[in-house]
Structure formats: structure tokens, C-alpha cells
Write a structure and sequence with these properties.
Radius of gyration: 36 Å
Number of helices: 32
Largest sheet: 9 strands, mixed
Distance between the termini: 58 Å
Shape: elongated
Helix content: 40-55%
Number of strands: 26
């Protein structure tokens, strides 16, 4: 691959056969035949209809469809309709989510301006951006979006914001000189890239790449190839569906065989087995999971986390690694002065004394040699200059009043080659030239130093001290500006020649500080067994300094740069990835490699980002987290979750919510399966003993749609456990239907079955099969409604609070009232095939229904520890 940044602009023009007159019309035509048009190509898209029908391939959905067919064969049209509605709603929901997720490439296209200025046939003309070809001379000025990648031929104070590519908000000063080293995109200061925009100055660029060959094009290709992973819950539900299908099939075959052996009619035996299948299949499971996740998203939205993909809520609970951007997520995304070095001493930014003339003089000069301002809470100007304005405000100096009192009479704007800015201001009837910029440039131009002992000739010792302080600041990730001045005797235009024989005033060190809540959030992650990792386009020193402050980095050896990652194979990176906590100066490809390496280690990875460069990694991660304030549309569309406050601590809250939601869903599934298991055991009991069928199909419909759904949803809305972040992330490879979970389902199902079977036997003792069936149906309904309180938590209901979940009480009351309407309202007794019960029989039912709850609570009080 040609490294244009390492060649001179003349060499690049010669290589691409371009002159200062630009391309001719014939050149353009030939090049379009070779390179094509400057557009981003879209891969083959799946139609919306195909996506919709693809939703029906899920095994759980297939089971539900089988349940609908069985219900139809049983003549239960209402049941069939309800199940089909659930299936179709889920398919529509899945389709909508898929369509939303595929917007990323369209938003990449929107990053470019529709027109561009180029030199053709020795004339500057405007053309559609799609018609740009390799070799075009592109003319840029402030405000222009850049439409192609290219090598700078000329740069006049050109500054370009490349945040969409690099993630760093500070504009980059550009120059035309070659860079001999092999550097990353962020350090290619003589190149420009599609999707960035010019903030200052002007320049001429020779186009070196268009369309899919640009850096944005490569990201578009990565977005197209990055695959979204199924969430742990989706994987668990898939595995659960397979096991459930196998188990139900085996049970139905066994029941069918036993009935045939006992001499029951073939059709009757078949219908009995089918009714058992209807009882066993939790038809409402899919919709209940969706409803619980939807409620979870509403709660999280109130806490500044907007969930774009429902199942991502649950994935948050499994996160074991958070790869976070630095700027704006862990930090405040604004420069703030931390220290100053003045009068030979380092002073905290809030410890300056305005009675000290030199310290006051430093602030005034920082405000005068400065173009930034702050008005009505709006900041206008370069972030480093805004930091100086804020320092002045800290000491009640208004930058506009200071500048009015000391008017500017001449200036020399900042230049990336000089790394300096100078102004001449009228101060106390004198013309004072103030110069600020990089110390390595300014120090050689200084001849004197301002001290409390007056102006002194600067010595080697003075310079050594200044350099040591500057080095300490830089090693701590601080951006350092040096300020100097001198008197000029005639107010006139100044030139670079005047930037000499200066008097040193001091150094001002600033940084983008960590958010106040970041350190606590990182600490919370570590306690919860989650590895926080910083991935940034910023320099290693800056990234390391921030990471140390907030607790991500313990040892400097845990930091690595993109150039070092590039030398590692995927296997080597996978082996070493857990050794690093900070990844600096990384490219979009490297971000994906880092995320994949953590995933290959068996981790569930959350990745934060805001730029276009983050899009592919956000899509590759198990949970992509985009910034709502600073994030590009590309980042948002590739993500699973959007933070409306761009705050790392919000991710930690979301993980806590995700853990609670997964626990609630698991408890809801436990409730459904244990109740269904109870029904199955009763049917098996009746079959083995040759007793009548305990339940009519209409009983099963009532149980599945009322006594199942409402309590399960209520369990899904259980309040968060405040101790959830003290646990380690759950192992995603542990199936939902594991040995412990299955044992619990069977034991709780047996308790419900025993109570129901006893009620059935009491009913049979009257000699009336309808009474026996009614008692079994009522006991099963009521015991399952009460069992909803058991399923709220592993702990006793008294430990978590009897009334802490109002929804479980509401679900119980609705179910209880509905059941008694069926039992006592004549028009319903016929529909639901129930007999009139005596007071004694109701007494038996209430007592038997309460027994499973008592046994469960007794066990939890004695053997389950509160936590």
C-alpha cells in the first residue's frame, strides 16, 4: 500500500500524473473508468419481507406455532388466535429492530458534502462530490466538509476536525511536509480524510483515495462485515427451546403409549397427549420476556440509557469487559487548567494570589493573547484558549473587559509550523507583544525571566528548571502552554522576526479532567468483576495519566499503542489482551481486533464510542454503547444502547439494571415452568393410575393465559436488588435450563402437583368426575397464583419485602377475582366446565393451594442466606 504521507507533495503529484493545472476532462473520464465514482457501496441487502419470515426460524417460535396448531386441532380457536397474535407481534418487533440497525451506511454517506471545489483545466470549479477522482486537486477552506482522502500540497494555517475518525475533539493542525515515520491516521498531519471538516485556514489537497478506498470506506466495509452477536439470553432461550421441545415430545409419546396399553381409544389417547402438550408449552413466554425487557428499557431511559435493541438489556447483566472511550465518557470533554508555573514555583490553578503582580500578569496575558470567549454559557473558540478564559473567570476577570482595557493593535495568528501565536496589546501606555505556544519552540527565543526579584537574564539553571517542570506536566498527561512577552516601540504589523528576545512569564498546564463520578464507577465495575478498559485515539501519555487517576491503570506496562498492536497477530493479541488496560492511538480496525480478542477469551464486551471510527467495533461488541450528546449518527445506529448524558457511570447503572432484569426474567421462567410442571405431573399421575382426565382443554387455556401471564410479568418487574453489583458477571456458557434450575423447577412443580392431586382425589371421593376436575383446576390455578410470590427471589418474601412489588399483588388479585368469577357466575361455569363447590371443598382448595408457598418460604428462611 502506497504511503503517501511519507512522500513529498511533488512526488505524489508526479506519481499520480497531475500538474498544478489540475486534470483535463479526458483525464477525468479515464480515471473514472479505473477508480469508479466517489461513493460508498452498499452490500446486498436482505428484504424486509425476508427479515420478517426469518423471525419464524427461532425454535421457541416454532414450538409456539406447533402449540397453535394443536390448539386448533383441539377446537380451541381462541387459544390459537392468541398464540398467533403473540408470534406475529414478536416477528414485527424483530423486523423493526433489524431495519433500524441497518441505517449505519446511509449515515456514513451523509457525512460528505454534496459539492467540492477542484482545479480542472486550469480553472477552479465546483463539482458533485461523487465525481471527484484520484488525482483531483481539491481546494479547502474553513467550513468545508472533506469529500475524499488526500495528501496536502499547500497548507495555510489549516486546522481540521477529525473527531468522526479519531474520536478526539481538538482540531488538528495540518502541514504539507512529508512524514518519514510509519504513523497512524491520527498522526498523519499532512493528509486529510473523508468525513472530517475544516475549522480554520485553507489548503490544497491532491486526492489519493475515493469511495470505498477511503478511510471512511474501509469503516463502511468493516460495518458491513462486523457481525452482531446473539445475546446470552437469546442463546439460552434457543437452548431452552431445544430441550423443551425434546422433553415435551418424549412425555407426550410416553403418555400416548401408556394410554394405548391401558386400552383407551386411539383418537382419545392422541387428544389426551395433545392436551398435555398444550399444558406443558409456556405460550406466553416469548411475549412475557419482551414485555419485561420493554419495561426495563423505560426504566433505563429515565436513567439516561436509551436501549435500541430489547435483548441488549439482558446482555448488560453479563458484561465482563467495558471498553470505554476516554474523551467525553471518562472525561468532561473540555480543557481545564490544572497547574501554573510562575515565579519559579508550581501553583495549583485555584491557589493563585491576585496580590502577586506576576501571577495576575500571567492570567491577563493569557486572556489577551487569546481569541476565545464565553457568553451566555456558550463557549466559542479553541478548547485550550477556552480553558484560559475559564481560569480568568475563576478570578473574576472577564475576558472582554480585559481586552477592552488593553486593546489589540496587531497580531500574528497561530501557525502549526511555528507553534506560536502573538498579539500586540496597548497596556499602560505601552505596546506589549505577548507570545504563547509550545515551550520547545519558545524557550530558545527567551532572553529574560520575570521574577519577584525583578527581570533577570535567563540562565542555564532557569531553563533547566523550566524544562523539568514542563516534562513533569507532560508526563502527567497535561497540555502545556508557555507565555512570554516584550515591549515593542512602534504599534505596527508584526512578523515572525519579532518573536525573539522575549521575557518568560510562566507555564500553564491543562487537561481534559476525569468526570467526578468516573472513579467511583470504575471502582464499582472492579468490585462487580468487570474489567474496565480504555480505548482511545489520544496519546499514550495522556491516556495513561487519566487511566491512573480513575483507577483503570495500576501499572504503566498495562498501556499499549496501536503501532504495537499492529505488529501482533490475532492469536498473539488474544493471548496478551488481558494484560492491557489502556489502548492508545488505535485505528478502527484495531478496535475491532481488541473487541474480538476479549470475546475470544469468553468475555461479554461492552464498547463505548461516539465517532464514525467507533461504528464497526460498536457493532462487533456484545453491547455497543453510543454517546447521545457527542455521538455521530453512524455510532448511534451501530449501537445497542445510547447514553443521553455521555457518562461512563450511566453504563454501570445500566449493567446493574441488566443484571436485575436477567434475574427477573429467569425467575419468571422458573414460575412458568414450575407451574406447567405441576400440571404435567398431575396428568402423569392420573394417566399412570388410570384416573379420568383431570383438566378440560378450556381449563388449560384459562391457566396459560391468566394465571401464567400476569404473575410472570409482575415477577419480571421486581425492583432492583441493591447488592446485585457485588456479584461477579454470570457465566454466559451456563445454560438457562441447567441442573440446579431444572431441579428447582421439578421440586416446585411437585409441590404444586401434590396439592392439586390431593384436591383431585378429594373430588373423586364424591363420585363426581366434574367436581374432581373443578377442584383440581381451582387448586392448580390458586396455587400457581400464590406461587408467584415464591418466584420473586431466591430469598424469602420477608427478606425482600412482602409489599415491595405491588405488581405481584395486583396480578394475584386479578387472577383470584377472575377464578372466582368462573366458579360462581353461572354464565361462566358452563363455558369453563366447572361444578358448584361446597364451602368445605373450597376450604380444602384454599388450604392445599397455600401449602407449596409455606414449604418454599420455610426452606428459604432456614437455608437461603440474605445478601
Amino acid at each position: 500500500m502506497t504511503q503517501y504521507h511519507q512522500q513529498s507533495s511533488a512526488e505524489v503529484m508526479n506519481k499520480l500524473s497531475v500538474t498544478n493545472k489540475g486534470l483535463s476532462d479526458s483525464d477525468v473520464q479515464k480515471r473514472q473508468e479505473v477508480y469508479g465514482f466517489n461513493v460508498l457501496e452498499e452490500g446486498k441487502k436482505i428484504s424486509t419481507l425476508a427479515v420478517f419470515f426469518g423471525q419464524f426460524k427461532d425454535l421457541l417460535v416454532i414450538i409456539l406455532m406447533i402449540a397453535a396448531i394443536i390448539s386448533f386441532l383441539l377446537g380451541e380457536v381462541e387459544s390459537t388466535i392468541v398464540i398467533l397474535i403473540v408470534i406475529i407481534l414478536n416477528a414485527i418487533l424483530g423486523t423493526v429492530q433489524h431495519v433500524k440497525a441497518e441505517k449505519s451506511l446511509g449515515n456514513l454517506k451523509a457525512l460528505s458534502s454534496p459539492i467540492a471545489k477542484v482545479m480542472r483545466n486550469n480553472q477552479i470549479i465546483e463539482i458533485p462530490s461523487k465525481d471527484i477522482v484520484v488525482g483531483d486537486l481539491l481546494y479547502l477552506e474553513a467550513g468545508d466538509y472533506i469529500n475524499a482522502d488526500g495528501r496536502l500540497v499547500e497548507s495555510h494555517n489549516l486546522h481540521i476536525n477529525e473527531s468522526s475518525l479519531t474520536g478526539e475533539s481538538l482540531a488538528v493542525a495540518k502541514f504539507a511536509d512529508p512524514i518519514k515515520e510509519d504513523v497512524t491516521i491520527a498522526d498523519k498531519k499532512n493528509m486529510v480524510f473523508t468525513g472530517s471538516f475544516v475549522t480554520n485556514g485553507r489548503g490544497i489537497v491532491i486526492v489519493t483515495a475515493i469511495g470505498m478506498e477511503t478511510e471512511i470506506g474501509k469503516i463502511a466495509n468493516l460495518l458491513d462485515t462486523a457481525k452482531e452477536k446473539k445475546t446470552p439470553l437469546q442463546v439460552s432461550l434457543d437452548q431452552f427451546g431445544e430441550k423443551l421441545a425434546l422433553g415435551i415430545t418424549m412425555i407426550c409419546v410416553v403418555i400416548f403409549t401408556i394410554d394405548l396399553v391401558r386400552g383407551r381409544e386411539l383418537v382419545e389417547s392422541f387428544m389426551f397427549a395433545v392436551s398435555l402438550a398444550v399444558a406443558a408449552i409456556p405460550e406466553a413466554l416469548s411475549s412475557i420476556v419482551t414485555i419485561v425487557l420493554a419495561f426495563g428499557t423505560q426504566k433505563m431511559a429515565k436513567e439516561n440509557a436509551i436501549i435500541r435493541k430489547l435483548f441488549a438489556v439482558e446482555s448488560l447483566g453479563s458484561v465482563s469487559v467495558i471498553c470505554s472511550d476516554k474523551t467525553g465518557t471518562l472525561t468532561e470533554n473540555k480543557m481545564v487548567v490544572q497547574h501554573v508555573f510562575v515565579d519559579q514555583k508550581v501553583i495549583q490553578h485555584d491557589q493563585l494570589q491576585m496580590k502577586n503582580t506576576i501571577e495576575k500578569d500571567l492570567i491577563w496575558k493569557a486572556l489577551l493573547c487569546n481569541d476565545a470567549l464565553e457568553r451566555d454559557h456558550k463557549e466559542i473558540g479553541d478548547p485550550t484558549e477556552i480553558a484560559l478564559v475559564k481560569l480568568g473567570k475563576q478570578y473574576d476577570f472577564d475576558e472582554l473587559i480585559v481586552r477592552e482595557n488593553c486593546p489589540r493593535v496587531a497580531e500574528l495568528p497561530f501557525d502549526s509550523d511555528r507553534k506560536l501565536m502573538s498579539t500586540v496589546n496597548r497596556i499602560n501606555q505601552q505596546n506589549i507583544m505577548i507570545t504563547k505556544g509550545a515551550l520547545d519552540v519558545l524557550l530558545s527565543k527567551i532572553t529574560k525571566i520575570n521574577t519577584s526579584n525583578g527581570l533577570l537574564t535567563i540562565t542555564h539553571e532557569h531553563k533547566k528548571k523550566i524544562e523539568e517542570v514542563n516534562r513533569d506536566f507532560s508526563m502527567n498527561g497535561l497540555r502545556v502552554l508557555a507565555i512570554a512577552y516584550k515591549e515593542v516601540y512602534e504599534p505596527r504589523a508584526i512578523s515572525v522576526v519579532d518573536e525573539r528576545d522575549l521575557i518568560f512569564v510562566g507555564l500553564i498546564a491543562m487537561m481534559d479532567p476525569p468526570r467526578k463520578e468516573s472513579k467511583a464507577a470504575v471502582e464499582s465495575c472492579i468490585k462487580a468483576g468487570i474489567k474496565p478498559v480504555m480505548i482511545t485515539g489520544d496519546h499514550k501519555i495522556t491516556a495513561t495519566a487519566i487511566a491512573k487517576q480513575i483507577g483503570i491503570l495500576q501499572d504503566p506496562t498495562e498501556a499499549i499503542e496501536g503501532a504495537e498492536i499492529e505488529k501482533l497477530t490475532d492469536r498473539e493479541l488474544q493471548e496478551k489482551v488481558q494484560d492491557f488496560s489502556v489502548y492508545a492511538r488505535v485505528t478502527p480496525e484495531q478496535k475491532i481486533r481488541i473487541v474480538k480478542a476479549w470475546q475470544e477469551k469468553g468475555n461479554v464486551v461492552a464498547m463505548t464510542g461516539d465517532g464514525v471510527n467507533d461504528g464497526p467495533a460498536l457493532k462487533q461488541a456484545d453491547i455497543g454503547v453510543a454517546m447521545g450528546i457527542t455521538g455521530t449518527e453512524v455510532a448511534k445506529d451501530a449501537s445497542s444502547m445510547i447514553l443521553t448524558d455521555d457518562n461512563f457511570s450511566t453504563i454501570v447503572k445500566a449493567i446493574s439494571n441488566g443484571r436485575s432484569i436477567y434475574t427477573n426474567i429467569k425467575n419468571a421462567i422458573l414460575f412458568l415452568l414450575s407451574g406447567n410442571a405441576g400440571a404435567i405431573f398431575v396428568v402423569l399421575y392420573a394417566t399412570v393410575l388410570g384416573l379420568p382426565v383431570p383438566f378440560a382443554p378450556v381449563h388449560l387455556l384459562f391457566i396459560n393465559l391468566l394465571t401464567d401471564s400476569l404473575p410472570a410479568i409482575a415477577i419480571g418487574l421486581e425492583p432492583n436488588n441493591k447488592n446485585t453489583m457485588k456479584d461477579k458477571p454470570r457465566n454466559i456458557h451456563t445454560p438457562l435450563l441447567n441442573r440446579i434450575f431444572t431441579t428447582q423447577v421439578v421440586l416446585e412443580g411437585l409441590l404444586i402437583a401434590i396439592s392439586t392431586a390431593v384436591a383431585f382425589e378429594i373430588g373423586l371421593s364424591t363420585g363426581d368426575t366434574l367436581t374432581a376436575s373443578t377442584m383440581a383446576f381451582t387448586t392448580l390455578c390458586l396455587s400457581r397464583l400464590i406461587h408467584g410470590f415464591n418466584s420473586r427471589s431466591k430469598q424469602s418474601i420477608f427478606a425482600i419485602g412482602v409489599f415491595s412489588n405491588k405488581y405481584t399483588w395486583l396480578a394475584f388479585l386479578i387472577g383470584f377475582v377472575a377464578l372466582h368469577v368462573v366458579l360462581f357466575v353461572p354464565s361462566f361455569t358452563d363455558i369453563f366446565e366447572v361444578a358448584t363447590l361446597t364451602g368445605a371443598q373450597l376450604g380444602f382448595i384454599y388450604s392445599l393451594s397455600f401449602l407449596p408457598f409455606l414449604v418454599n418460604q420455610w426452606y428459604k428462611l432456614l437455608f437461603v442466606r440474605s445478601k
